[in-house]
Every structure is written in structure tokens, then in C-alpha cells.
Specification:
The protein is of the alpha+beta class and 326 residues long. It contains 11 helices and 10 strands.
Length: 326
């Protein structure tokens, strides 16, 4: 990830405190700044802002998952730079520091912001992708647990189209997928086994295509009936064998991988049943995502809940039939 020298110089000045609204740092405290970011950089008397800009350039060159995901070390630098504990006299909330930093980041297509916990985050403006992937398996905060419960209640009552349009599409956009296209709802005959197709660009700039087959409820393969999972199997087979047209490259391509997504549980029996029905080559192309995966990813990526998932506003203290008290 290569940034313009002008932007590197301005970031370097912010790190060492030569820019307005940022804390001044001498040689010792510059070293401590990078130590706090888990980086083994030691300042030894070099020109402070120039040296810091060179270190930022090295950090941006570190490995990262894709063009829309920052190296973890750079995210730590931004968080340390915007630490709300480092209050300056004229900027108690660090809003001025955030605005100054965003002027620089915006030139490279990025923006910093504070999340609901007051922690600085950075996102890719074009795709609205948060730079660091949150761990969906970490312990959740009380507010996150409340949001997860609200989304659970929504999944219990939403339709399949709502699951796709209000939950899955925003979630996959946030995770870095692009050209996300919902198909088959205006004309079911054109669905060809997939509800959504999308693409993901690897760090090598190779592109993978994904199809999604979504079902609102539980996917099971019990001894009583396998019609539910058999339908999914037929649709996945159709999805992997049918081409899609990508208007960005003006040609037809095959889907590389298929997501089977359920708003309920996908039982172990259902996974095994589909795996046994698919041949070895197609088996590696299929991935599963059930309700718990959706809830955890949606919660830790800090996506806003669908409108219908939010609790109703408190009732007005005045009844509509009451006379106005004046």
C-alpha cells in the first residue's frame, strides 16, 4: 500500500506532535509511541517528522488481506494517535484532531471515526469497509449482546427477502465483497439456484465470484424428511454450473464458491448430507453460514440494525385525544 509523500509527511508530523491538536513528543516519547503500537522502532536522534514518516511508510508496506483492509499495525497507530486520553488544551473530545487526520486520510480514500465505545476505527470510503476485521468469536459487550438479541428477534419474524436485503447484503458489503447483486426476486426464472452473487478481490488482484443461496429457517436432514436440504442441494448444483454475466468485464464467468446461508440452524446432518451428495471437486466450493454466524458477524462489525429490528419509540406522554393543556 503506497501513499503519496505529502500524506506520509503530514502523518509523521502528527505522530511527533509538530501538527496542531496533537501532543508533542520528544525522541524518548516517539519510541514509546511505537512501543504502544507493538512496533520495535527506536528513535535515535534523527529528524523527528521525517523519521516518523519513513516508519509510517514501512508500516503501510506490511502484509494485509486486501486493498480495502489496512495492515493491523497501521490501525494500531491510528488508534494510538487518536487516543482520547491524550487531550490537548483546545480539543477535549479530540474532534479537531480527528478532523485534521481525516483531511489526510481522505486523500488516500480512507476515513477515521470513533465507534460507540470511543475506540478509533478506520474505514475504506468507497466500500465502507472497516479496516480491521473484528473477531466474531470474542466476548461481546453488554450493548453488543442487546443488539444481538434485537437482531435475533428480527430473524424470527422477517421474510426471506428481508433476510437477504436487510441483513446479508449490508453484512457482505461491510466484509469487503463488492458488485453484490440480488437476483431472482423480480423474475424467479432467472435465479438459477442463487439469490445473490458477488465478487471479492484478492491481494493479488485476482477476483473470486461467490453465489449465495439463502433460506429463512432451519436446514435439516432428519429421517422424517430431507426435502428442505434436498432443495438446497439442487440449487447449489445449479449455481455452480451456471454462468453469470459480470458487466465490469463484459463477459460471463462461473461462480467459484457457494454460500449456503440460513436464518436458522444448519444441522450437522444437513451439512453431511449435502457433502455426501456433492462430488469431491464441488464439495470444496461450498461454505455454510447459519444464524449464529450471521448474528456474531453483524454484531462485531458494528452494522446498524434493520429499521424493523429496533424497539419502537417511547409513547408520547400526551394521548392524541387529550386536550392541549393550555
Amino acid at each position: 500500500m503506497q501513499w503519496k509523500p505529502r500524506n506520509l509527511r503530514e502523518l509523521g508530523r502528527m505522530v511527533v506532535g509538530d501538527a496542531e491538536h496533537f501532543q508533542y513528543r520528544s525522541s524518548k516519547y516517539i519510541t514509546e509511541f511505537f512501543e504502544d503500537c507493538d512496533l520495535e522502532y527506536v528513535h535515535q536522534g534523527e529528524t523527528r517528522p521525517v523519521w516518523a514518516a519513513e516508519r509510517i511508510e514501512e508500516i503501510l508496506a506490511m502484509p494485509h488481506a486486501s486493498a480495502t483492509v489496512m495492515p493491523d499495525a497501521f490501525v494500531r497507530v491510528i488508534r494510538r494517535l487518536l487516543d482520547r486520553a491524550e487531550v490537548t488544551n483546545d480539543d477535549a473530545e479530540r474532534s479537531l484532531a480527528l478532523a485534521a487526520l481525516n483531511v489526510v486520510l481522505a486523500r488516500e480514500g480512507w476515513a477515521a471515526f470513533y465507534d460507540e465505545h470511543g475506540i478509533a476505527q478506520i474505514k475504506h470510503i468507497a466500500t465502507n469497509t472497516v479496516a480491521q476485521m473484528a473477531n466474531p468469536h470474542r466476548p461481546l459487550t453488554p450493548s453488543e449482546i442487546e443488539r444481538r438479541d434485537q437482531l435475533t428477534a428480527y430473524l424470527n419474524r422477517c421474510s426471506e427477502d428481508d433476510l437477504i436485503g436487510e441483513v446479508l447484503l449490508p453484512l457482505f458489503r461491510q466484509l469487503g465483497f463488492h458488485r453484490i447483486t440480488a437476483v431472482g426476486h423480480k423474475d424467479k426464472a432467472l435465479e438459477y439456484g442463487k439469490d445473490v452473487w458477488m465478487k471479492y478481490t484478492l491481494p493479488t488482484l485476482h477476483v473470486l465470484y461467490f453465489g449465495i443461496q439463502a433460506k429463512k429457517g432451519k436446514l435439516d436432514a432428519s429421517g422424517v424428511s430431507t426435502s428442505n436440504v434436498a432443495e438446497i442441494h439442487n440449487q447449489v448444483t445449479m449455481m455452480l454450473g451456471h454462468e453469470i454475466f459480470d458487466p465490469e468485464i463484459s463477459r460471463r464467468v462461473l461462480v467459484d464458491h457457494a454460500f449456503i446461508v440460513a436464518g436458522g440452524e444448519i444441522t450437522k446432518q444437513a451439512r453431511n448430507w449435502i457433502g455426501n451428495k456433492l462430488d469431491a471437486s464441488k464439495r470444496s466450493q461450498v461454505m455454510f453460514m447459519d444464524r449464529d454466524d450471521i448474528l456474531d458477524l453483524f454484531t462485531v462489525t458494528n452494522l446498524p440494525l434493520p429499521k424493523d429490528a429496533l424497539p419502537p419509540p417511547p409513547a408520547s406522554p400526551w394521548d392524541e385525544d387529550d386536550d392541549v393543556p393550555f
